[in-house]
Amino acid sequence: MKVYLLLMLMAALMSFVITPAVRVIGVRGRVYTPRRKRDMHREPIPKLGGVAMAAAVLGGLCIAGTIPFLDGIFMNPDPIRGLLVALLIIIVVGVADDLWDLHWTMKLAGQVSAGLMVALGGIRVEAMPVGWIPVGNEAAQIILTVFVVVLTMNAFNFIDGLDGLAAGVAVIGGSAFFLYSYLLTRTINAYDYSNMATMLMALLVGACAGFLPHNFQPARIFMGEVGALLIGLLMATAAVAVTADVGALAGFRFRNVPAYMPILLPLAVMLLPLLDLLMAVIRRTARRSSPFSADRGHIHHKLVDGGYTHRQAVLLLYLWAFVVAYGVVALNYFRSDVVLIVIGVALVAMLVLTLWPWIVRRLYYRKLRQLRAARAAKTAQLLDAEQASVTKTEQRRVTRERQ
Whole-angstrom Cα distance, residue 335 to residue 343? Predict the structure, then answer.
């Protein structure tokens, strides 16, 4: 654990130190995010922050390669080479998109290429985690791996809409993934704790944690396309690597590790990004536009439009990520019935907290309608009383005239 934590700290320090230098380059090169209707910032803010994160990850990989404790990861160089090529691809594509706003087809081609490099390097989906159905066909393994990588990249790209949101969610989800992967490695192998997924999560959490102080609201720099693609690439690669780690089913099943966890945990970590991605695709397809076209319909936009401040919306989504990710991890190490009850209560509380502005607004308008109805009733009563008084006066006048 100490080695991984040291690696995480080194990545965090590199990211924290490199980010200001990258910001200077972005300012001098005027690499700004254009002001759009859906954006939350009011001043031009430089992009390219993901370059600092990628540099921290690459530097961390170089350091990891010199640590004897992690020799087991680097004994077969092909997976690392494939990952390095994938990292270079997303850096090139991401920087080009930050500079020239590439067409979505070109970005998709870059994402597919990165996923292909990971798969060709040997990190592949070799079994479907649900039921552990083996995927024996090599072409099917590659296709599934590319699909997972591209899906995860776009999921994190879609939630990168508020200051610090994507980086913070990656830190929370990645730390949960790191903890699970490390404990899983200790469970499966009592002699070698070196593990690809654990190392990648340590680097990702460190790079995002070092970048977050510069990116949290009010942000001084954005991660841009490089950062979102980097998070998606490392998350997806780690998820695929974990499914390969538990290939020894006999040793996996008799120990205290639920068989559904390798697929459940990545889904839990990426719940918010995947949910936002699904809603965006449905929303944009329904209005006959490209699924990759931008709009202001994301979850974080709805929270801000609903009444939360920028920072409150980000912290609320952090809380959702924490409850879901760490709740799923807790299922593996504590009594499931107790954990499920706690998770259920926490989710209900989170749902109420999320909907609170709408609840308050609904109660306000209901009270307002009641006040208006009461005022209208009182006005009608006064009018009736006045009309009755006029009628009685008229009747007395008519009576006097008859007399």
Answer: 12
